[in-house]
Design brief:
Elements (H helix, E strand, L loop, with lengths): L1 H22 L11 E4 L3 E3 L4 E3 H4 L11 E4 L6 E5 H6 L6 E4 L3 E5 L3 E2 L1 H19 L9 E5 L6 E2 L5 E5 L7 E9 L5 E11 L1 E7 L14 E7 L17 E3 L14 E3 L8 E8 L2 E9 L8 E6 L5 E8 L2 E4 L7
Parallel strand pairs: 1-6, 2-7, 18-22
Antiparallel strand pairs: 3-4, 5-7, 8-10, 9-13, 11-12, 12-13, 14-15, 16-17, 18-19, 19-20, 20-21, 21-22
């Protein structure tokens, strides 16, 4: 009888030890492992974070997936150990097999040609709108000193850019490349805009202050990429204008080299028109400056010899200035 009770006591103790051992098992502490996973040897990632589903060969349901760690920086690698992965998943939920370490890479590929071709295409479209009022044959964007290598993630990318204020000669375009994966890079490229347009070219030497006539110019097709200043492309902008500086023979005449021929010339006699109500009088004066309609010029009154500012109101006519801005 005593022996039976002793045997029952030892049996209970043995069963209790087995239960404690099983409870401490890493696979069954929170229930039996429901899924066996095999790690990959190498992984390429394009997201900012690395999930468990990225590292294993098997497919995992979305509700079972787990965040492991942040991704490496673009163009670099990161080594993740199997032990580290086990610390990031629920204990006993998965059985992990495979290599002890995984190399995770966030790669970039050379996409220079794609970027420059797309940049050239969208710039051509905008430049065409800017020159919509000018007759030209074509617009070609030639890149100089462009980035030798533009590395981007695979997939689509967006381009934003800023055109410089001057589109003549050599210029620099700043642009940014970005992707939906969070990649962003600022770049710059030197370029020339080849736009053949018909421009005014001098047929002879034109001295400063000389009036330009139709016989003084010839119209030639010039590439704007070879110009350093905005050329004259309309006859109304050059014929009967006055040269502001010396213009050599056979050069493209820029807009800055001409100005409207003044209707009041320096040293010429002018009529000073004064009106008050219905009373109107005039006096003789001499202009000390050139001026066009609306300009303020110094005029010497030949009656009282006073020098004052007057406003040009017509050819050879000025009146007392009554406010406004000078040219």
């Amino acid at each position: 009888m005593l022996w039976c009770r002793v045997r029952e006591t030892f049996t209970v103790i043995a069963v209790s030890l087995v239960v404690i051992t099983v409870a401490d098992s890493p696979l069954l502490a929170e229930g039996k492992a429901s899924l066996t996973l095999t790690l990959k040897d190498k992984v390429c990632i394009y997201r900012p974070t690395i999930m468990l589903s990225d590292l294993v060969k098997e497919r995992i349901d979305k509700d079972q997936d787990r965040l492991i760690v942040s991704s490496p920086t673009w163009g670099s690698k990161k080594v993740i150990t199997r032990n580290f992965i086990l610390t990031r998943i629920p204990r006993g939920k998965f059985l992990i097999n495979g290599p002890e370490k995984i190399v995770v890479e966030r790669p970039l590929i050379d996409r220079t040609d794609e970027v420059l071709n797309k940049l050239g295409r969208i710039i051509r479209e905008e430049v065409a709108n800017l020159f919509a009022d000018i007759a030209y044959d074509s617009i070609t964007v030639e890149f100089e000193r462009a980035p030798e290598e533009v590395q981007l993630p695979p997939g689509s990318f967006d381009l934003s850019y800023r055109l410089p204020g001057k589109l003549l000669g050599y210029t620099v375009v700043n642009f940014e490349v970005s992707t939906s994966a969070g990649f962003r890079r600022h770049l710059a490229a030197g370029c020339r805009f080849h736009i053949p347009v018909v421009c005014a070219v001098s047929k002879r030497k034109i001295v400063k202050g000389e009036r330009i006539s139709e016989s003084d110019i010839v119209w030639k097709k010039i590439d704007l990429a070879n110009c350093t200043e905005h050329p004259i492309i309309n006859d109304k902008d050059v014929i009967d204008m006055r040269a502001r500086r010396f213009i050599p023979e056979g050069v493209v005449i820029p807009r800055s080299a001409v100005e409207r021929y003044p209707i009041v010339l320096k040293g010429s006699e002018v009529s000073i028109d004064i009106s008050k109500g219905t009373l109107r009088v005039s006096a003789r004066g001499r202009s000390l400056e050139d001026g066009n309609l609306g300009d303020r010029v110094l005029v010497k009154n030949l009656v009282n010899n006073k020098i004052e500012k007057y406003q040009v109101v017509g050819p050879g006519r000025v009146s007392p200035y009554r406010g406004g801005n000078r040219k």
